[in-house]
Design goal:
The protein is mainly β. It has one helix at residues 24-42; strands at residues 5-10, 52-62, 71-78, 86-94, 97-109, 116-117. The protein contains one helix and six strands.
């Protein structure tokens, strides 16, 4: 598995707020979207293909504005688990500059029982 997943988004009117730059809420949507896409891309290679991730905590730092017509490169990757919590980084780049930095904490939930699963501490290394 590639622990790094990337995609690009061309900024359109729907992403822009009244200040003429990408709306801060849009970055939060993209964080959740890319995390889901990454999981969909790799889950068949894990012991947990039927389970789902639930977001617990989200920290985001805005460093620079992005404007209509620009392209944003989004890069995400999980880092070592913290007990039942799985941290994930999401970084946003525009013109090769880091413009937004995010760290989220997730838990894996059994789809049928709705209970949190404890992952092995080295589960990422097995992929």
């Amino acid at each position: 598995m590639s622990l790094i997943y990337e995609k690009q988004i061309h900024v359109t009117e729907e992403h822009i707020d009244q200040n003429k730059h990408v709306n801060n809420v849009q970055y939060v949507r993209w964080v959740e979207e890319i995390a889901g896409e990454h999981w969909d891309f790799v889950k068949h290679k894990t012991d947990y293909p039927g389970d789902v991730w639930m977001l617990l905590d989200h920290h985001i730092q805005y460093k620079k504005q992005v404007y209509l017509g620009e392209t944003v490169r989004i890069k995400t990757y999980p880092v070592d688990p913290e007990g039942v919590r799985q941290p994930r980084k999401v970084e946003f780049y525009c013109n090769d500059q880091l413009v937004v930095d995010s760290r989220t904490l997730w838990v894996l939930v059994d789809k049928e029982t709705q209970k949190v699963k404890r992952l092995e501490s080295d589960w990422l290394k097995k992929l």
